[in-house]
# Entry
Amino acid sequence: MVKVSLPERAPSAAQELKGRIVSFMQGASTEITPSEEIRLPELTRVLPAGTAVYVAHTPNASFAQVIHAALAVRRAGFLATPHIAVRRLADASMLRTGLAELRAGGVEHILLIAGDAPKPVGEFSSTLDVLHAAIVEESGIACVGVAGHPEGHNAVAPASLWQALEAKQNIAAASALNMHVVTQFGLDGGAFRIWANELVRRRIRLPVRVGIAGPAPIAKLAHFAIQCGIAASMRALTRNLSTAAHSSILSLSPDQHLLRLLASPLPPQIVAPHFFAFGGALETARWMRSIAAGDFDINAQVAQFNIPGSAARA
# Structure
């Protein structure tokens, strides 16, 4: 008897998109606030060991609290990456002491940001001030994240943002720093595509983690868009909260953002998503676990994921 092999059915467009999403999620990172350090035992039961967990320097937290939380994240088995908000540092000595404490505790990654202080409290006005001083390189920190702003910033001109990113890449190339970009969260997937194309045009080759808002109500997204100075999303959200949910442009859930972002393959430079948790670290982590495991279906009609059960969103 001749055995006839039937041709395998080609995967549907939805299956291909789901595959891209699951693959992209394998390197996903997220964040906690210093006050969420108590959540770490629960997070170890949700996120795989080695997941990059950033520690946000929230307005009411001190630098010491950020360091304390980062060391706890490292002890919990995650890749701890504390925010270093340079405009909130008193002086170079404070920075050197903090970096030394992190290195002694096994932390090798940081995210260097300007911070939310309207005026610098010390000698550093920008992350470039710190990078030019070579303080991070001298500390032994191996990997440095810097900020990207696909939707711009309400307090900084676009040209200045690009010049700063180009300068940071040049510093990394001339030093031993392993640098990557973590973008501010945004709600406009089209803006990110334009920004990514501009990276290519400007020959900025740093790996990029694209910032995405985790599961959160619209009102909370609006609050953090204003707080973080995200110009495009801030204007669209605050114009009319009641109609924002029906916008064909904004991505108001991580489901929508991933669906629009990965509707076509991304450049290899875009390596993974970073999920902003806004104080909801455990909820965001549970959602991440479900999506990374492929435990969802795509509901194309409403541009969202169907996740079996309620645990993933609890």
Remarks:
- The beta strands are 30-32, 52-55, 79-85, 109-113, 143-148, 178-183, 208-213, 270-276, 297-299, 304-306.
- The first strand starts at residue 30 and ends at 32.
- The chain has one domain: 13-313.
